Amino acid sequence: MVYVSLRKSNCTTAEIEKIVASCQKNNAPLDITGVLLYSETNFIQYLEGDAKTILSLYDQIKTDPRHEQVRMICYGPVSERSFPSWHMATKAISHNELAFRTDITAQDKQTFKQLLTGQAQSDSRALMLLKKFFEPATQPVKA
């Protein structure tokens, strides 16, 4: 599942550190893995695990006071996990300088901006873009 949300202005860096610590502690026993990207104004998160567990977690996220306008972008089964050992990896991003770990096309940049604004994407497209933030750098980082 991929969702996006607006980051409330009272959600400080310390609050984000609490979110990550909570994910890393609580996700392992639930067998949930994924990644969280955040900016000054947005969150975008990809979660993998049991469907019922993911939907239950999503219900909790929707009521979290650090988020607003939580929108599910895509949801569906996967044949294998993309982040099997990451109970929650995280990365801060800037809307002005999107730093992907591999080359990215102008179309990919546009698609990612659409993700951030809550426009639905195919599961494979959303996942491909999120992976680009976390893949080992094989080429210079492009902004």
From TrEMBL:
InterPro entries: Acylphosphatase-like_dom_sf, BLUF_domain. Coiled coil: none annotated. One of its GO terms (molecular function) is FAD binding. Gene3D superfamilies: 3.30.70.100. It comes from the Bacteria. Residues 1-89 form the BLUF domain. This is BLUF domain-containing protein. It comes from Xanthocytophaga flava.
